[in-house]
Amino acid sequence: MTQTQEHTSQAATTPSDFTDADLQRLLKLGTATVYEAQGQRGSVASEIRPLDPAMKLVGTALTVSTTPGDNLMFHQAVLMACPGDVLIVDAKGFTDAGPWGDVLTLAAQQAGIAGLVIDGSVRDSEAIIDAGFPVFSRGISIRGTTKVDPGQIGGTINLAGTLVDRGDIIIGDRDGLVVVKAADVLDSLRKAEEREAKEEEFRRRILDEGASTAELLGLLPILQRYGW
C-alpha cells in the first residue's frame, strides 16, 4: 500500500458522528478543561508552544514522521492533507533547523490545512504570525534543511511522549495542546461541558456566597488534619 493509499484508508475509517461545531465547542472550552475532563489524559509536552499566544487550533491529525533537518515529507503532507487537517510532525525534537517557513505556510493555507504542530523548529515566524496560520513548535531556527529523506505519513507517531494517530483530534491554545481520540470526541465534549458547568457554579458561589476554593473542593478536612 502506498503512503497516499494508507492516508485515504485511514481517513475513511475515522468516525464521522461528530461535527465541526463539536470541535469548535471543544476549542472554546479550552485545552485545560478538555484535558481534565479526559481524566488528565492527552496533554502534549509543554515545551511545544504557539508562536503567538493568541494562536488557537483544532482539527484532525495528519501525522508525519521526519528525519531531523529534512523537510521532504512536509511538502508531501501538504499534497495529501484534507481541508481541516492539522499536520502533526515528529521531527525528533531537533531544533537546530527550520523545516517549515512562510512558503509552506501559504501552500498549507491554500490547501485548507488548519495548522501545524511540530516537535522541532520553524522559521519565518513573523511572517507565519502575520499570515494567521496557527503553529505550535518546540523552537525557532533560521537554519535550512535537506529534502532527501522519505519519512512516514499517516501512521502512529510519538509527539514528545504523546502517541498520536491519524484521525485523532488536536486542540491547541495558549495553555498548550491536548489530543482527543476520534472515537472519544463526543464523550470528551460531554464531560468537558459538565466540568465547565461545575466550575461556573464554583464561580457563582465565590461571588454570591463568599465560598472558598477549599470549601468548594472539599479540602477543609484535609487541611484540618495538617493543622490548618
β content, as a range? 15-25%
**What best-fitting shape do the alpha-carbon axes yield?**
elongated
Assembly level: single chain
According to DSSP, the number of beta strands is 10
Q: Low-confidence runs (pLDDT<50, min 5 residues)?
A: 1-15
Structural class: alpha/beta
Radius of gyration: 20 Å
Major sheet summary line:
8 strands, mixed
Order of helices and strands: HHHEEHEHEHEEEEEEHHH
- How many helices? 9
Give the end-to-end Cα distance, rounded to a whole number of Å: 64 Å
Helix share, percent: 25-40%
Instruction: Output mean pLDDT.
Output: 93
What does this structure look like?
- This protein is α/β, with parallel strands linked by helices and 228 residues long.
- Helix content is 38%, strand content 23%.
- The protein has helices at 3-12, 20-29, 31-37, 72-80, 102-110, 125-131, 185-209, 213-216, 220-225; strands at residues 49-50, 57-65, 85-94, 115-122, 135-140, 152-153, 157-159, 162-164, 169-173, 176-180.
- Strands 1, 2, 3, 4, 5, 6, 9 and 10 form an eight-stranded mixed β-sheet that branches. The protein has a two-stranded antiparallel ribbon with strand order 7-8.
- A hairpin with a 2-residue loop joins strand 9 and strand 10 (176-180).
- The longest helix is centred in the C-terminal third of the chain and has 25 residues, at 185-209.
- Mean pLDDT is 93; it is low at 1-15.
